[in-house]
Write a structure and sequence with these properties.
By secondary structure, the chain is an alpha/beta fold. 41% of the residues lie in helices and 16% in strands. The chain has 2 domains: 197 residues, Rossmann fold, CATH 3.40.50; 90 residues, UDP-galactose 4-epimerase, domain 1, CATH 3.90.25. Bound molecules: ligand A2R.
Length: 324
């Protein structure tokens, strides 16, 4: 990708550092942003320019884009928790909708507007009937929670900027992604953390769980960022793209894999506090459009992702205990 200059907005989160290394490996020159109060530890070893940026500040976004002049913007910055979106709806709308508009407006004002990948979510589809599965990009968006609604709004606004201004905007609908470093606010990160805490004797041998029957389409974060890079290179502006494995797995089966990967003897208990106000029973992606455009297929098995996530969590726990 000679001459391609990527800017990752919101790079200090879960996906950002994986995307930085992927894009570097694919030949992009990479710069990134994070919030001023966020630690740069996760991305500092990547040796790329990192700028402080709050996407709520329209002027700051515009100034930075004019300075960096990226050819491609990956917009990851978000309030990404469904649970928090119920508690902080206004904040979620401000960051996810107004923030995305600030990014699009800043790109529109560039002398040579960059390609933009707006990273959205499978949550945008909401509850789909069995007849609509697997969901393709033409499936109507029926978001069932505040986070999902903000991502659907970002998606629709992105399509309008592409149509009305001829901008090169891709709407990416990422299905559940998992891997080392994911926050325990998400089920798999939470189960892995609890498992390692039990292994270390830091928690009684009970994992507390929410709804285990929900089925989700899980992809390793390293496969997800490979799809983002390929979409930046080969995707078509103005279109939405699903990024998922194309195969749904129940949360129960993921938990079973985690329990099998641990030597600890662990009991599972239902915890009402971990149930969401609205839950979607089954989501599975149709990834035909992505595969046809880019040739992408997932390569990392869920078992391998779980093994790597547990290994990462064990290393974190040992680090916290001062063991190298
Ligand atoms: O909330 P924090 O402190 O973890 O910071 C997040 C950051 N962020 C912002 N960046 C700039 N201006 C803001 N006003 C702002 N508010 C939050 O965006 C975090 O560092 C980053 C998003 O990373 P994660 O929450 O870890 O999301 P992840 O898993 O990397 O997903 C990337 C994208 C998100 O748009 C998701 O909604 C989507 O993929 O599925």
């Amino acid at each position: 990708m000679n001459g391609e200059k990527a800017l990752i907005i919101g790079a200090a989160g879960f996906v950002g550092r994986y995307l930085i290394s992927r894009l570097k490996a694919d030949g992009f020159t990479v710069a990134a942003t994070k919030l001023a109060n966020e630690s740069a530890v996760r991305i500092s070893e990547e040796c790329i320019p990192v700028f402080d940026l709050d996407i709520s500040d329209a002027w700051a976004v515009r100034t930075l884009l004019n300075e960096i002049k990226p050819t491609c913007v990956f917009h990851l910055a978000a309030q990404s928790s469904v649970a928090l979106s119920w508690k902080e709806p206004a904040l979620t709308v401000d960051i996810n909708v107004k923030g995305a508009v600030n990014v699009l407006e800043a790109v529109r004002a560039m002398t040579k507007p960059a390609r933009v990948l707006l990273i959205g979510s499978s949550e945008e589809y909401g509850a789909v009937s069995p007849a609509q599965l697997p969901v393709n990009e033409e499936t109507p968006l029926r978001p069932g929670n505040i986070y999902a609604a903000t991502k659907a709004a970002q998606d629709m606004i992105g399509a309008i900027y592409a149509e009305a201004y001829g901008m090169d905007v891709l709407m990416v609908r990422a299905f559940n992604h998992i891997g080392p470093g994911q926050s325990p606010a998400f089920a798999v990160g939470d189960f892995c953390l609890q498992t390692v805490r039990i292994e270390e004797g830091l928690q009684e041998p009970v994992i507390r769980v929410g709804n285990l029957s929900a089925e989700r389409d899980f992809t390793d974060v390293r496969d997800v960022v490979r799809a983002y890079s390929l979409l930046a290179q080969r995707g078509k502006g103005g279109l939405a793209y699903n990024v998922g494995s194309g195969r749904a797995l129940s949360i129960q089966s993921i938990l079973d894999m985690i329990l099998r990967a641990s030597k600890a003897d662990i009991r599972v208990e239902r915890d009402e506090a971990r149930f969401r106000p609205v839950d979607v029973p089954l989501v599975e992606a149709d990834i035909t459009r992505l595969s046809q455009a880019t040739g992408w297929r997932p390569e990392i098995s869920v078992e391998d992702t779980i093994a790597d996530t547990l290994a990462w969590q064990r290393a974190q726990t040992n680090k916290a205990k001062g063991i190298k």
